[in-house]
Amino acid sequence: MSDPLLQVDAVDLYYGDAQALSGVSLEIRTGEIVAIVGANGAGKSSLIRAIHGIEKPASGRIRFDGVDITAWPSYRTCEVGVGHVAEGRQVFPNLTVLENLEMGATLKRARGAEKRTLERVFTMFPRLSERRRQPAGTLSGGEQQMLAIGRCLMGQPRLIMFDEPSLGLAPAIVHDVFRIVRRLNEEGLTILLVEQNVTASLKIAHRAYVLENGRIELSGSGRELLDNDRVRQAYLGL
Amino acid sequence: MTSDFLLSLAQAITKGLLTGMVYGLMALGLSVIFGVMRVVNFAHGEMMVVGMYLAWAGFEYLQVSPLISLPVIAVVFFVAGYALQRSVISPFIGRPEHQQFLLLLGIALVLVNVCLAVVGPDSRGVQLDSQFDSYEFGPLVLDAVRLHAAIAAVAIAGLLWLFFTHTRIGKSIRAAADNNMGALVVGLNVKRLYAITFGVGAACVGAAGALMITIIPVTPFLAAEYTLLAFIIVIVGGLGSMTGALLGGLLIGVSEAVAGLLVDPSLKSMFSFGLLILVLLLRPQGLTGKRNP
């Protein structure tokens, strides 16, 4: 079996005195979709931020493609290919759609391919192309999510971590988002998916972890967890 | 009203507009720093005065016109601003405002007292060859030095606008100001961008100082006055807005000049404060400001 692309080993994270993650370990192999499910406040976003370097873990190790990236700032982890589509989309509301996309390509690893990737993003999301001169703040929620994904692609990531990509979107658009995640994976990108929409994410995930109170409580293939009684009771209300 | 009065009023307004452009450039520095980092530079007037002294020293000892030494002063200010942000100010970002206030007030005190210690309290000015030249536009007579300073200020503001809209770093700074979390997510080096921003803000005020010394002589005691003036301009124009800073500069420049004509030059601040109070009462977000920034 190939070495994992991302390896998280016994990571603890605190906000002041409150512990957000305790001893979290997981791994993602190249080409996988791995889902992390769990209730609100279970630590899912904290985990993504710790991997990306936006939050600094108190202990533990994070390796990306064999390189120790623990506590690297996000401008360095982005540079080795860690991509992040953040919760709440985090577009730049007063910058135009085009400028938002350019901001995704300020990384050294991305500059050479900027034009080509821009065309690819516009082909994938024609709406963004139509609205390229508009401030991002004037886009609808769904369009902003497309922009956030496009902006992430501009950085030539190898892994994309999606943090609640369907949150607050209309059902039809939620469906689009999952379709895009699957398509990006088929194009070769490795995906870490954090979602409250447990059924949908377990269905597209190869493997999944259940995070409760900052700890990994369960793991298995997407199928196994969908059938697991504990998951069905706690998250699917069955 | 006599046509004589109208002419001197028009003369005062033009003079005010020209000085106002230099004020605008000074305030632009404050506005850029605040707009991006939410740090209020309480040492702004002190930096202005240091810029004036540097230009004066260049003229006095090296016989270099302030308009020529301006780019050098701007670069020196950029580097100093960058270093100051990286070393001292950066840890204070996100801390309570009174802590930032004390830090920058401390920097202000150091700067003004260094000026006092090195140059002394006497007023220092430059006597340019063009000191008494003027241009005539119909009945209006414009001082050459004031006109040159105003043109230079507008040109620098234009360069700044190009920097923020057409360069990768300028756009990144706007992005970081717009959404700090978004900037971290796409991998912008926010600390470095903040340092560049402080450098750019400092370069603006340094350049404004080099222009101002051609218009009026400098004493260390001008510093506090300029800090206050820069605040008034930025609040009148709209916090964090570049066009607001320029517009506010013009307004304050004109109000000072008209006050000097109608009442007494020593009462010019009263008019500026009056304008400030009026804006705070009628349009608290400033002339170009949005509500709830």
UniProtKB/TrEMBL annotation, chain A:
Residues 6-238 form the ABC transporter domain. One of its GO terms (biological process) is L-amino acid transport. The keyword Phosphoprotein does not apply. PROSITE patterns: ABC_TRANSPORTER_1, ABC_TRANSPORTER_2. Pfam families: ABC_tran. InterPro entries: AAA+_ATPase, ABC_transporter-like_ATP-bd, ABC_transporter-like_CS, BCAA_Transport_ATP-bd_LivF, P-loop_NTPase. CDD domains: ABC_TM1139_LivF_branched (cd03224). One of its GO terms (molecular function) is ATP hydrolysis activity. SMART domains: AAA. Keywords: Amino-acid transport, ATP-binding, Nucleotide-binding, Transport. The keyword Nucleotide-binding applies. Belongs to the ABC transporter superfamily. This is Amino acid/amide ABC transporter ATP-binding protein 2, HAAT family (TC 3.A.1.4.-). It comes from Enhydrobacter aerosaccus.
Automatic annotation (TrEMBL), chain B:
GO terms for biological process: amino acid transport. One of its GO terms (cellular component) is plasma membrane. The keyword Ligase does not apply. GO terms for molecular function: transmembrane transporter activity. Keywords: Amino-acid transport, Cell membrane, Membrane, Transmembrane, Transmembrane helix, Transport. Its main location: membrane. InterPro entries: ABC_transp_permease, BCAA_transport_permease. The chain crosses the membrane at residues 20-40, 70-89, 101-120, 140-164, 193-216, 228-254, 266-283. It comes from the Bacteria. It is a multi-pass membrane protein. CDD domains: TM_PBP1_LivH_like (cd06582). Belongs to the binding-protein-dependent transport system permease family. LivHM subfamily. This is Amino acid/amide ABC transporter membrane protein 1, HAAT family. It comes from Enhydrobacter aerosaccus. The lineage of its organism: Bacteria, Pseudomonadati, Pseudomonadota, Alphaproteobacteria, Hyphomicrobiales.
